[in-house]
Amino acid sequence: MIAIKKVIMKWNPANKKWYESKGYIFTKYGDEFEVKIEDISDGSHIFVDINCDNCGILNKNIVWKNYKKSLHNNDGKYYCKNCISQERIDDRLKTMLAKSISFYQWCYNNLPKDIADKIMLRWDYERNIKNGKVLSPKDVGYKSNGIIKNKGYWFKCLDHPEHGSELKNISSFTKGRKGSIECNKCNTISITHPNLVKYLVNKEDAFKYSYGTGEKLLLKCPHCGFIKKMLLTTVINQGFGCPKCSDGIPYTEKFMYNVFEQLLNKDFETQLSKKTFEWCGGYRYDTYINKINGICECHGIQHYEETGGKWGSLDKTQENDFDKEWLAKLNNIKNYIIIDCRKSELEWIKNSIMNSRLPILLNFKVDDIDWLKCHKAGCKNMVKVACDLWYSGIKNSTKIMEELKLGRGAVVKYLKQGNELGWCDYNVEEEKKKRDILHVEVTSIKVVCLTTEEVFNSQAEAGNNYNIAGTNISRCCRKKANYAGEHPETGELLMWMFYDEYLIKNKILGWRENYIKSHDKRNKKIICLTTEEIFNSQNEANIKYNIKNGKIIECCTNKRNSAGKHPETKEMLLWMFYDEYLIKNQTVGWRDTFINNHLNHASNIHIGNKSRTGLHHSEETKIKMSKAQRGRIFSEETKQKMSNSAKIKIFSKQHRINMSNSTKGKPKSIKTIQKMKEARKSFIKINSEQAEEIRKKYATGKFKQQELAEEYFVSMSVISTVIGFRGAYKRLA
Predict the structure, then answer these.
(1) Boundary-marking domain end, from 144, 172, 187
(2) Which residues contact 308 (CB under 8 A, 6 or more apart)?
(3) Dihedral over Cα of 268, 274, 278, 280: its sign
(4) Dihedral sign (CA 106, 109, 110, 116)
């Protein structure tokens, strides 16, 4: 709106014609005259005062020409600088919305109605104001950056009004980001995981961070106060893992223990091994349930996905799982249940249990178990539990071990930790004295040698008779060792048992022979996978194939790939315990795969290392080789006749043949040639027997290459060539 009605103009040649046409009388150039506002020409540069048609603010000294250009195209109104920017935004939004859709439309088109309603209710009309205009979800596009650029729009919290409004990008809703429907403070630890608040050093972090934050927070152990930086997701999935007072038992094991405790009232066994059942051998099982004659295994993520680290490959883990299950079923275990525990979370494990066969076999429903109690048990610190039992009056590690169904080593470790933390008064020295008194009592117990059926009044008497330490006999009686000592005449392994236990077992016909067979690995049936021959003992196989004692057992226990070679075919011999073979043989094609994998690995090591010495050629290959190539196998007489220049020529040529393509043909320095001459001349002095002798000495680790070079009067390069570069033979040994 124009603030004035008339303006003063001056006559000039440029405006004379225009104003005469409007009825004004010309006097002379330079004279002033009064002009009505509506008669001013559009290109005039005269200054006028204008009121903004939107906000009413007076804008002084506006050039008329600029005023006319600034009039809005749609309504012919004049807007000041502040108002015109909003009008342009409105126009742009209208254009965008005409081409696209509003945030309001997007929500109702793509989300369930109840969620869309909730988002619309969260829209804060009081704060979403721009340039005096209140914006609604219908006024903004679903790709809009926000009322504050790239920071979004204001949204209220419906559940907790005290949280106030927050700036939130529309993209949080349209891209389906987790937790976007709720306010940020509703997604914080204080609301979603209040149980984690006790770990926080700075309690205000509970209102700043969500449980999935990628930032490591300062957390402290609720038991001993140890502080460290950790991700909250690690605490949720794996527990706090305090290095000072942690018990080292996984959440899943403690959770499952409590489940069985509620259902079976301790009528179950945990951590099965050969101490529980002899057939377990080297395998361990999680839980044995007497009621259903079944085993329950809890499988972590390493049983389903490649995790690396200490777990090894997925294939190896799953093969081990298969072997364990077949071994259990072969030994009359009726039910074998696997619980998927890849996530250490209450709901996940609860669903895995209810989807397994356990509810049918043990006849229980989901409401029969206090799941929260199981979760609390999973989060419990066994160090604290052991110390509480000690303080309650059970000041005996054996009784605590029986109560918690844990091993002695674990219980003692927990009590020592508790003593350091001030949770109990466990005294190591006093416990040692108690054990010494107990040891005297135990060592005076009668024992029997199962091998010879001799009875002794004490372990000490038996030890003196066979020159064996009494502690070794005790270990054998307590099933911690298979045997102790050998018979001085027959060389048989001596197996021992407490006489009281022997009297009980002796009621079963033939038990002694079976017991000795199962515990004597040296007399255990084995099979040669290469030839499929079966042997009653390792010694029988050793004699036939002239194999060093112990090598076959190492092969059977996967400590080496092969043991010995076939005398005719020269094939490497692979071995396995016969009972393990029977289990694996139920899988079609396993033998060929097993042999190929082991032979390829063994041959790669064998050939790879031998090729470094250059002494592995067969006689046939040596004959085919040119003189230059087999210079090292010339007779001593021939070598004496050869001139120095001929020797240099031969060995230089041999060196060039062995060079890689990348170095072949490159000129050598005089210094390099001289070193090569010395090395090749020196090599004449080393024969295959000496080379083998050098390798054996180096493999012991007592000799250095320099010492061997001085002993055999050769250069270091010769020793390196013989033993294999970078200690290959040492590693192989």
Answers:
(1) 187
(2) none
(3) positive
(4) positive
251-282: pLDDT as tens digits: 788 888 889 888 887 788 888 888 778 888 88
Residue 333 within a domain = no
In a domain, 385, yes or no: no
Ordered alpha helix ranges (H), 537-577: 538-545, 551-556
pTM here is 0.35
Tokens of 433: 């004295």
- Residues 226/243, Cβ–Cβ less than 8 Å: yes
- Report the SS3 class of residue 530: coil
d(CA 280, CA 657): 56
Does residue 119 contact residue 111 with C-beta atoms inside 8 Å?
yes
If residue 262 lies in a helix (H) or strand (E), which one and from where to where? Answer: helix 251-264
Sheet holding 526-528, edge to edge: 533-535, 526-528, 575-577
Selected residue with higher pLDDT from 242 and 397: 397
Per the CB < 8 A criterion, the answer to whether 575 and 529 are in contact is: yes
Q: Are 406 and 382 in contact (CB under 8 A)?
A: yes
As a 3-state breakdown, the chain gives helix, strand, coil percent values, each rounded to 5, of: 50, 15, 40
Sign of CA dihedral 515, 521, 527, 529: positive
Percentage of the chain surpassing pLDDT 90? 5
Residue 507 sits in which domain range? 448-519
| Whether 477 and 531 share a structural domain | no
Check whether residue 634 and residue 721 sit in a common domain: yes
**Residue 23 confidence (pLDDT):** 84
Residue 645 CA: distances (Å) to CA of 110, 652, 664, 678: 89, 10, 21, 13
- Tokens 């997604």, residue? 187
Residue at token pair 């356990």: 358
Q: Which of 377-391, 596-610, 638-652 ranks highest by mean pLDDT?
A: 377-391
- Structure tokens that stand for 256 in this block: 């499952």
Write out the H or E segment, with its range, that includes residue 227. strand 227-230
Category of 562 on φ-ψ map: left (φ > 0), alpha (ψ -120 to 50) or beta? beta
Higher pLDDT, 626 or 194: 194
Q: What is the tally of helices (H) and strands (E) in the chain?
A: 33, 20
Of 126, 154, 187, which residue sits at a domain end? 187
Any idea which residue has 């205000």 for tokens?
204
Q: Cα-Cα-Cα-Cα dihedral of 392, 393, 396, 397, to 10°?
A: 10
Task: State the total domains in the chain.
Answer: 6
Of 214, 187, 217, 178, the closest CA to residue 200 belongs to 217
